Amino acid sequence: MPRTFLKLFAAVSLLGLLGWSGARAEPVAIRVATFNIEDLRTGELIEPYSDRVKRAAEIIQRIRPNVILINEITYDMPGGPDYDEKAGPGRNASRLAALLAEPAAPGLEGLHFTPFMAETNTGRASGFDLDRNGEIVTTIPPPSKKQTDAQRAYGGDCWGFGGYPGQYGMALLVDDRLEIRDEYVRTFRLFPWANMPNAMMPMYSPEEGSDEKPGPWYEGEAGALFRLSSKSHWDIPVALPNGEVVHFLCSHPTPPAFDGPEGRNKRRNHDEIRFWADYVDNAAYIVDDKKQPGGLPAGSNFVILGDLNADPDEGTSLGNPIVNMLLANRHVGDDPHPTSDLPMPGLDPDDTCRFRLRIDYILPSKTIEVKKTAIWRYPVGGGEFPSDHFPVWADIVVPAPTDAED
User: Fold this and answer.
1) What does residue 250 show for φ and ψ, rounded to 5 degrees?
2) pTM of this structure
3) Sheet holding 369-375, edge to edge
4) CA gap 252, 72 in Å, rounded
């Protein structure tokens, strides 16, 4: 493992020389990562930090990304455990950034990030019987680390599954030498699934002999309002030192499981992934949460980033959306296909989680060159790996603007 660390640090040093040269007309190299830190809650991000989040911080500091998406970090808000009313909502990204700014182990250096966090659909009561069990649950159940029947009942009627508001949220951390273009950030948390042309919305089939009639699983007003995003979809533009902008397209689609014959989660997963293919094609139907229409302009640099909960060659996803929607898209570059150099029993080299699937992705546009990519599986800090997912990272090179001066 030490030899691997030395190689990693050497790569980062090279990236530093390329990325911060100060010459606007040169390409810029950065390291991008995505890490699902399993169900990271507010209490773990308040001192004294949990041992688990400290191990996660050490891993991130060893990878040393310039941009990293964290999946399954609680968006702290009223109704969630350990919420601090004085601090206000959405502070967990800043808390994680503060932890990462301090060395996590001897010999490491802190990382200085600008955090971004926004609301999520998870654990947000809909007021409808979305799981069709005959009961509408809107009361937030008592929190517990292990999922309870009450939490499952509550989550089943939320816009996105969660045992409390904000569970399983997202955060993007960006090297503070880069610039998040806040005024151009777009979110799509509220976008109605029914507004997607040819949406794969589920149908309800009553049991044989029932007086009920078949029809849409989400009926009437529930169907019109039901949100495509189980968490959210974000387009976060980040400006680089050479004047170029990279759009980080962040999401965490629902797992294609935990449903019935109607396949409501499988169908939603497919269309959540499809959304990015349509977005980079600048599909006219798309409208963001500020009511601004359209997708990404042609020629834009982008990176599709996050836990997409779909494997390109195994698992339970519907219609192989990774291959057929993303990798087949004319704007998406070749599959970087990261692998791990640390074999683990039962896992393929490209599996990004302990449940034997590749589901975490960094997929840059064709305008971006991928130099190297990998999956990190090394434990740190003398304890267990801090998540059921492994971080994925990629070294990418973004070209200089075409109108840059020589």
Assistant:
1) -110, 135
2) 0.94
3) 113-116, 170-175, 67-73, 28-40, 392-398, 369-375
4) 9
Provide the β-strand partners of residue 389: 353
Domains contained in the chain, number: 1
Name the residue range of residue 35's domain: 2-20+28-398
**Mind listing the pLDDT tens digit for each residue in 363-379?**
999 999 999 999 999 99
- Checking 40-44 for CB contacts under 8 A at 24+ apart, the result is 40/70, 40/72, 40/73, 40/74, 40/92, 40/96, 41/74, 41/81, 41/82, 41/167, 42/74, 42/76, 42/80, 42/81, 42/82, 42/83, 42/84, 42/92, 42/95, 43/81, 43/82
Q: Are 65 and 174 in contact (CB under 8 A)?
A: no
Cα–Cα distance between 126 and 213 in angstroms, integer?
Answer: 24
**Beta strands 233-239 and 215-216, pairing class:** unpaired
Residue 340 lies in a domain: yes
Looking up residue 240, the CATH number of its domain turns out to be: 3.60.10.10
One-letter amino acid at 130 equals L
Provide, for the chain, the percentages of residues in helix, strand and coil under a 3-state DSSP scheme, each rounded to the nearest 5: 20, 20, 55
More confident residue, 51 or 12: 51
The average pLDDT across 246-274 equals: 97
Assigned domain for 403 exists: no
